Amino acid sequence: MRLNDLRPARGSRHPRKRVGRGIGSGHGKTATRGANGAKARRSIPPGFEGGQTPLHRRLPQKRGFTNIFKKKYAIVNLDRLAKLSDDTITPDLLLEKGIIKDMKSGLRVLGRGDIERAITVCAHHFSKSAEEKIKAKGGAVEVI
Q: Which of 47, 72, 99, 136 could disulfide-pair with 104, CB 3.0 to 4.6 Å?
């Protein structure tokens, strides 16, 4: 076997189809595009649906994303805690009294309002202002 004997496998190579070069070529007139219609005349843009509003225009635009791991806290402010007579306030106590309906991912104490006495508050998260106001009255904060 020599280099000049090498040939591609039989049937693996095809001559290029020259379309639209007259009737003598066998691919003239319609140039292998069939009869009339949009496909015979021009290329169809991707997403074209025959004049119907395309799917990518029917769907509403949605920007950004939703963080599926975001924590939602049950929120309570200091003015609500000040009305309670208990010295130690826990999430279970707030659920029992009906101040919060659902614990969600935990309890967050925010600093709206003031308290007049020292209380101990157990929660999952405190805002800085809430923590400062509780400690200023001699109370304590416990992060669960």
A: 72
For position 75, what pLDDT does the model report?
A: 92
- Domains along the sequence of the chain with CATH: 19-64 (no CATH), 74-143 (3.100.10.10)
Which are the contacts of 78, defined by CB distance < 8 A and separation ≥ 6? 109, 110, 111, 112, 113, 114, 115, 130, 133, 134
Dist CA 31 CA 13 (whole Å):
22
- Tokens of residue 105, six digits: 């991912």
50: helix, strand or coil:
coil
- Per run of 10 residues, the mean pLDDT along the chain (length 144 residues) is 93 92 90 84 85 90 88 91 85 88 89 88 91 88 88
Query: Could you identify the residue written with the tokens 């991707």?
Result: 46
Query: Which amino acid appears at position 117 of this protein?
Result: R
Report pLDDT for 1: 83
Tell me the residue type at 34.
Answer: G
Question: Residue 29, Cβ neighbours under 10 Å: how many?
Answer: 9
Q: Is 103:117 a contact under the CB 8 Å cutoff?
A: no
Answer whether 110's CB lies under 8 Å from 75's CB.
Answer: yes
